[in-house]
Amino acid sequence: MGAGIAEVLARGGLAVVGIEVNQDALERGRGHLEKSTGRAVKRGRLTEDARREILGRVALSTDFADLGDCDLVIEAVPERLELKRKVFATLDGVCRADAVLATNTSSLSVTDIAVTTKRPTKIVGVHFFNPAPVMKLVEVIRTVLTEPEAVDRVAALVTGLGKTPVTIGDRAGFVANRLLFGYLNQAAGMLESGHATRDDIDTAMTAGAGLPMGPFTLMDLIGLDTCLEVLEAIHAETRDRRHAPSPLLRELVTAGLLGRKTGRGFYDHGAPKVEAPAPADAPAPVVGVLGTGALADAFAAICDRAGAQVRDATAGLADCDLIVEASGDADAGRELLAAAAQAAEPGAVLAVTSATVPVAEAAMASGRPADVVGLHLPDTEGALAEIAATVATGPGVADRAAELAGRLGLTVVRCRARAGFIVDALRFPYLNDAAAMLGAGYADPDSIDAAMTLGCGYPTGPIADLDRLGIDRAVAVLRALHAETREPALAPVPLLTEHVTAGVPIR
Fold first, then answer.
1. From the candidates 139, 229, 325, 386, which is the catalytic residue?
2. Which tens digit of pLDDT belongs to each residue from 327-354?
3. For 286-407, CATH number?
4. Looking at 36, 106, 327, 447, which residue is catalytic?
5. CA-CA 20 to 30 A from 412: which of 28, 69, 206, 334?
């Protein structure tokens, strides 16, 4: 990270002094710089002359005294508070009195570092994302002691480097990590509880939520030890159970299974990849779609694309393979499902679509609970179907439902019949966290969205997602999750309920 930050500064035309603890570490840093800029030349992003100029702007040393003339010093040592304090004590003794000292911490309190220095008003957090030469986001963190001029100078420098600064207060995890790791930790808990498999959770969040990678793939890439450190730092401040590290994550770290860097974490990265079998060539099923509105229209459109015959009246359900209750209304849905259960032939699968009404409740009201599963589309324009069996679902019925959904061209994942299935159960608590951050005045909507799109590669930010998906839907799912788990962090925050009551979007 230190070499990456040095490269970013040198690319911006600035003279840089790079300090390392000893000569061996210094040579490793030099190697990182040379390899990174060399790759950029090979990819046509730098000329050889430009590379020489960049490298020529970086002077490397093991002597802290060489920082004496610097206007800004950025610390990028490992995430250990005592080590960072030791470094800042040394910087206090060699840097000019007007120099701004910055820490690149991703989770530690900037205030805890600042108060041990002789210049707390000139201590700023400046969190670059890895790899620093590529990632556009930089979180600029002010403490209650930091003078505004110091923050403004750093934010202006970041802008001049072609990055996007997000200026925020000093809270553990800042914006991106505070939001990201609550979601990642919940995914680990979901796996540990047996709610769904690792692969189904990863697939659900890429195919159903549009994320660039699933939570377990991402944690293995970050490093499970780093994930644990960040969660512990956030939990130490918040005492929020969403950030209390999952026992499974802690166990993997204790065992030395840290992800890609050790070859094994949630995944075994040395194992040969197993290609999923191609779906069997089978005719599209006959599908009954019950109800009217957007959800029923979405199911009908999926059937049309697959060339499936659609029945939309109870009288025509006798030959259906799959009957989907998609009314969007709990009471009407139960009546429709009960009528369908009487009209359908034995062997037909009955599916309930609601992510907020317990599937088992609808199944028992149908009179044919053994034939009922949950079938949820987290994005009505997407291609993912979540299949959930209840304890009353008969043997082989969920398998049959998954096979029928696959014949409609849908990517299928399986989970327990719980509120939110997989995608909504992970997505809406994350959006709730973002709303809590906004409601507390910790960061504005644009900063929160920029943190997640530029810092984490999300296709859209959480505040934009709340308006896109619907605040009323978010509140309904969160209330269902809270009713099921009684977990305080899953209750919708006041800002969301207030906007639902007022009928106005977040922005």
1. 139
2. 888 888 889 999 999 999 999 999 999 8
3. 3.40.50.720
4. 106
5. 334
